[in-house]
Amino acid sequence: MIYLTRRACFNAAHKLYNPNWSKEKNEEMFGKCANEHWHGHNYQLFVTVKGVPNPDTGFVINAKELRDIVKKVIIEKVDHRNLNVDVDFLKGQMTSTENFAIAIWRELAPHITEGTLHCIKLCETENIYVEYYGE
Ligand code: NI
User: Fold this and answer.
1) Which residues belong to the active site?
2) What span, in angstroms and rounded, lies between the C-alpha atoms of 89 and 94?
3) Which of 17, 25, 28, 42 has the most CB atoms within 10 Å of its CB?
4) What is the dihedral of CA 21, 27, 32, 35, to 10 degrees?
């Protein structure tokens, strides 16, 4: 078994704000991230696919095809967008890094037909990232 990872970078705006809570409670929980006028992040997404190399190509998955899938299914929908209002697959959810990574997995998994999706790693800042393995 070998693991291939492809990186993609994008930037997007969002805010963390629970509409069921008061402004004060949101500010207490989310701090600056609750700013009603939004804020942005330069995200880095790492998509890891695992499998056995195909004997004809030596590839688990063609890295160029993986790039195109990630671009079409995720990047084009989130890059330079507002995650809270523009992204269909995040509708009605808190746009935390956790929820975002889980949603990316769900969108991408059906499109990975060579190898198997193993991990979605999503970096929100230099110091914070999440990893999701599908469970
Ligand atoms: Ni944020």
Assistant:
1) 33, 80, 124
2) 12
3) 17
4) 50
34 CA → ligand 1 middle, Å:
8
> What distance in angstroms lies between residue 62's CA and the mean position of ligand 1's atoms?
33
The closest of 95, 109, 1 to 47, measured between CA atoms, is 109
Structure tokens at 52: 């056995």
Domain of residue 75, residue span: 2-132
**Local confidence band at 74 (pLDDT 50, 70, 90 cut-offs):** very high
- C-alpha 36 – ligand 1 centre gap (Å): 12
**124, 44 Cβ separation under 8 angstroms:** no
Q: Average pLDDT in the 112-135 region?
A: 97
Cβ atoms < 10 Å from Cβ of 13: 17
Alpha-carbon span 103 to 89, nearest angstrom: 7
Which amino acid belongs to residue 56? D
User: How many residues in total does the chain contain?
Assistant: 135
Total domains in the chain come to 1
